[in-house]
Amino acid sequence: MKVLLIDDDEDEYILNRDLLDDIKNRSFKLDWADNYEDALDALVEGSHDAYLLDYRLGAHTGIDLLREIQSRGLHRATIFLTGQGDDAVDQSAMELGASDYLIKGEVSASTLERAIRYAIEQEKAKERLKFQAEILKNVHDAVFYVDKSGRIEGWNEGATRIFGLSAEEIFGRSIREICPSSHGSPFDDRIIPAIEEHGMAEEVIQCESRSGEDLYIRAKVTPMVQSGMEGYVFCASDITKQKKLEAEIVRISENEQRRIGQDLHDDLCSQLSGIGCLTKVLEQQLRSKNQEEADLLRKVTEMVAQAGVRTREIAKGLVPTVLETQGLSGAIDELVSRQRDVYGVACVAQLSNDSRLDDLPSHVSIQLYRIVQEALANSIKHSDCEEIEVRLEFSDGRLELSIRDDGKGMKPDDDSSGMGLFTMRRRAEIIGAEFDLHGSPGDGTRIRCSLRLPIA
């Protein structure tokens, strides 16, 4: 291990060399610089593991040298050597980056070896922390730390980019201030309960940016103990562009579905009706001449009529115009009745008639309707159920939608699989609703979608 002594007294060099030679379990090589200039060159080069620095260096002092290497951004494992009663000097040395200090005349081989080892380990730890801090500084996402009460104690540049607030502006302030929301406090209402239940939380949070625009944040929050104090680490990414793109895709999709549904209703249904009328006329004309061909035409007429009915049903599914005429409750009730009549499953609906449903934005009503539509289709196709219950009600400032069936349930690993479930989750996320699914083999399935009021 290479050590450099910086001291203008040769006797000190001999004394410290002998002390290092007395150390049994480690080998040291001691070099010596007896003036300020040579010492500075050696410190800049950084080829030694540790530096023993005396206070007195001719016209300069060890404090001058520490100040110079600090101004150059150098970090060295430095042990300051002082005389007795130099407490102020020792304190200055530590503030300027010295790893430790030793009092001349009180140094033994063991204390010198321990001080050198400690200084090297401490400097390595500092370098690791500096490296990690540099990585954290350049992370594009927001990473910050809050204490248990929600007060912000750590803030990286990614957080500054996303929230528009510098570390100086935000330190010590509450997390509830950085992302105000009309939906209450996500930190208190959702994040803390999720951490208490699952040990971590992952939430999409809608709030208002500093410029007053909508801001969507996907945050992953984990508990962490810092200096004996409990708190939470937030890793948050800005998904505002993604959310706007999703909303635009949904809007385009709904418009396209509406166009296709209207084309089916206005064009194809009309053509099928016309074909049905023509085959009915032909059947009547053939009835007196050829009974067998008339019967075939009657079957064709019935098939065309059935195709027309089915096409109208498809058109209704694609164009939920009933939402505009009867509102969300009426549309769901009509959907439940149609499923009951077509598939023979006992579908029942318990639906609120609260006037607040009339105030729902159209995109929210459409997504809730589509979730019910998809859930009913899944239950009928896959669950072998005999009864399905749909509920829509207000509770504790939330709009609660649930779809429950008494079918065969789901395996534990089925929760996240299937395009239908994925689509329902995405629809719920688009409107800022919580979505969860409960089901076990033989015990049916329950889908819940919960939306906080007021709705943005």
Can you put this structure into words, describing what you see?
The protein folds into 4 domains: 135 residues, Response regulator (Rossmann fold, 3-Layer(aba) Sandwich); 97 residues, 2-Layer Sandwich (Beta-Lactamase); 80 residues; 135 residues, Heat Shock Protein 90, CATH 3.30.565. It is built from 14 helices and 17 strands. β4 and β5 form a beta hairpin. α10 packs antiparallel against α11 and α13 runs antiparallel to α14. The longest helix is centred in the middle third of the chain and has 48 residues. The model has no long low-confidence stretch (mean pLDDT 84).
CATH topology description of the largest domain: Rossmann fold
By secondary-structure content and strand pairing, the structural class works out as: alpha/beta
Q: How many H/I helical runs?
A: 14
CA gyration radius, whole angstroms: 38 Å
Provide the number of structural domains: 4
Overall geometry comes to rod-shaped
What does the main sheet amount to? 5 strands, parallel
Low-confidence stretches: none
Helix content: 40-55%
Care to count the β-strands?
17
Q: Give me the CATH superfamily of the largest domain.
A: Response regulator
Mean pLDDT: 84
Percent of sequence in beta strands: 15-25%
CATH architecture of the largest domain: 3-Layer(aba) Sandwich
Largest beta sheet: strand ordering: 2-1-3-6-7
**How far from one another are the termini?**
65 Å
Name of the CATH class of the largest domain? Alpha Beta
